Amino acid sequence: MAQPESSRIGIIGGGIVGLSTARALADRGHRVVLVEKEDGWARHQTGHNSGVIHSGLYYRPGSLKARFATEAAQTLPELCAELGVTARRTGKLVVATRPDELPRMRALAERGRANGVPVREITPGEAREREPHLVCVGALLVDSTGVADFAGLARAFAAELTARGATLRLGETVTGLLETDRGVMLQTTRGEIAVDHVINCSGLYSDRLLPDDERRRLRIVPFRGEYWTLRRPELVNGLVYPVPDPDLPFLGIHLTRGFDGHVHVGPNAVLALAREGYRRRDLAPRELADTLRFPGFWRLARRHLRYGIAETTRSLVPPAFLAGVRRMLPEVAPGDLVRSPAGVRAQLVLRDGTPSDDFVIISRPRITHVVNAPSPAATASVQIGRHLAGLVAGRA
Ligand SMILES: Cc1cc2nc3c(=O)[nH]c(=O)nc-3n(C[C@H](O)[C@H](O)[C@H](O)COP(=O)(O)OP(=O)(O)OC[C@H]3O[C@@H](n4cnc5c(N)ncnc54)[C@H](O)[C@@H]3O)c2cc1C
């Protein structure tokens, strides 16, 4: 149902996607009420990621990820500058460390070109001019990649919204959605909020508010991504990524000189035993049981058993992790890596075990659910917000 301009729209989630969507709706003249369960903004995925402005290189041509990230890589650094948020266009290398990775590396370059991404193959010697400590047999250079303080950007969006009179409510959890003749009632830990339309941007919990029939088809599976800080940051100048496995939704352990100048190594991808399980010992029995009851999880696990075992080994056995890093950066020694805070990805998995490879939005007349907004959703948050605002207005 098309929403008249100046409808009252409820948004669940104060990560970068919810805040950016609120901003796009306010631009269209809607009244916005945003509800976030934490006492501050960007406390989950938005505040625990690699901070990379992705170029659009990896994604299926024509997908929302490809379209939105390619556009965002061109525009986000300037928006950050306007809002006083740290961001830089740094460029990045994708490196093959074994000859058998070269065909996949070249296929990736083709995909990038199909998406309109400025990507070119360079020689190992040229790669070493940028990254003198690197070892590789081939490399791609992507100029439009950068780094940004996504949590800072989310906070800047919140400050803008407050200045424009939007209602932002922290420390309040949405527990249910009740459709009425006139709109939707958001049921929260503090009472009820009547709105015309709801957009659910609750990240790791975005499947929780779906009707049961939808929920049977899909589930958010939380994958922890662990990071290490490199004690010798002088070994890495910019961003260095491996050639990813095209069957997996993760990019592989990369070396990232972030917006703050620190060099992070990671993230890996291991099953988290709680949706907000940032530490290995974090366990939420009901959440884990919910994952284990879902047939799609077992199908995914069977299909990627070897990868899962290897990632878990690298997580538990530091020398195994180090060996992976040393394929790109042989000078890294055991004492050079210090564990740093992890992030947890909200990955949508379908009942047949397929991890969704695009942003997924379930749009109902009065409720829109963003059920898959993993990487590069921080990069593409402005484009996702505009897209959602367009959907709500019936103009997408
Ligand atoms: C390890 C890792 C590395 C990544 N690297 C990158 C990268 O380099 N570049 C990039 O572009 N993207 C990256 N991403 C992805 C990016 O961080 C996410 O796509 C993006 O932050 C998603 O934003 P969001 O607002 O949807 O989710 P979130 O930031 O998780 O926000 C959801 C919010 O909803 C709130 N919430 C949940 N349930 C409720 C409820 N019932 N009521 C009220 N509030 C609720 C939560 O508290 C949370 O604040 C990475 C992610 C991870 C985990």
Automatic annotation (TrEMBL):
EC top class, as a word: oxidoreductase
EC number(s) from the headed UniProt entry: 1.1.3.-
Keywords: FAD, Flavoprotein, Oxidoreductase
Organism superkingdom: Bacteria
Extent of the signal sequence: none
Positions of the FAD dependent oxidoreductase domain: 9-390
Similarity-based family: Belongs to the L2HGDH family.
Protein name, UniProt field: L-2-hydroxyglutarate oxidase
Organism annotation: Naumannella cuiyingiana
